[in-house]
Amino acid sequence: MPAASARPSASHGQSLRDRLPAFPWDKLEPYKKTAAAHPDGIVDLSVGTPVDPVPELVQKALMDAADSPGYPTVWGTLALRDAITGWLERRLGARDVTHHHVLPVVGSKELVAWLPTQLGLGPGDKVAYPRLAYPTYEVGARLARADYEVYDDPRELDPSGLKLLWLNSPSNPTGRVLSKEDLAGIVSWAREHGVLLVSDECYLELGWDADPVSVLHPDVNEGSYDGVVAVHSLSKRSNLAGYRAAFIAGDPTVLGPLLEIRKHGGMMTPAPTQAAAVAALGDDEHVRVQRERYAARREALRGALLGHGFRIEHSEASLYLWATRDESCWDTVSHLAGLGILVAPGDFYGEAGDRFVRVALTATDERVRAAVARL
Ligand SMILES: Cc1ncc(COP(=O)(O)O)c(C=O)c1O
């Protein structure tokens, strides 16, 4: 019965499309073609995907764990939980972190996209995130059919119906960092109104002109993890985007039920990735080396953009420069594509970004030199 079976699948397809925003990167394709036609090749600074090698000790740990025939656990090995709690205390200054305060996830994007659903949010519940933001916060709300709202300062939101408040400091796309005082004020506002605060801190180790602080720091949360969860990823700090290694940490009364749901859902980090994450979290030296690479690229690109007539706002941390020529972002994208340089238009991250472009630091030194020469 082909006709009868075709109809339901077509309507399912439509309802899925209604739940998702348009995939914006397709709009960049013509500019990518233009940039690729440059005689010396494209410099792609659009997507922030790491290009430097996976640290040797991490590759070795992955290979040593290659013989992993059994199912991995959702909560992670004891070694992984120890590595996470150790890192949280050592690098973020968090205190009294137990295994009940941590939960591995399969890269942070899946967590961001599915957290509202896994928390049981739905129509009538509200999710809020920054006016300029990583698009997956909206995707997550839409997948849960929850309502969503953007903010400039979360303390100005109407808290009624607000169930999940996303923070992202350092920010993608602007590189803005929230001060310790602001974070503390937002934590206390969220607690006062019974709103779960989830802080996406995946760029925390990439501060340049600022020293980003975690919501897990006692100066921010008054020594309590009530109502507070932080999201961390190894994708950027350890070049592990291809491994899918991330975790959340904070309020055990939130993480406990999430662990149960994720067990039922089979959301397991592969065992070799877990072993690789243990090695990565135990080593600060490769992070220092990687930071130096990004710092040098940032200085070179920053100088070249300023010299070319750009203004740069925020960008005190993260892997991006948030730059403008005070014109439509698409005019800037087009201008740079003519020089063989591809960047992301600011309106991908919200309408408020429509006069900015996001320039990623994730290209090789050779490609960054090429961009600087062209500018
Ligand atoms: C703000 C933010 N959160 C989360 C992610 C997802 O990172 P991953 O899934 O690699 O951990 C990204 C990736 O670019 C990001 O910019």
UniProtKB/TrEMBL annotation:
Belongs to the class-I pyridoxal-phosphate-dependent aminotransferase family. This is Aminotransferase. The gene is dapC. Its EC number is 2.6.1.-. Its cofactor is pyridoxal 5'-phosphate. The keyword Transferase applies. GO terms for molecular function: pyridoxal phosphate binding; transaminase activity. It comes from the Bacteria. It comes from Streptomyces pluripotens. The lineage of its organism: Bacteria, Bacillati, Actinomycetota, Actinomycetes, Kitasatosporales. Pfam families: Aminotran_1_2 (PF00155). SUPFAM superfamilies: PLP-dependent transferases (SSF53383). Residues 42-375 form the Aminotransferase class I/classII large domain.
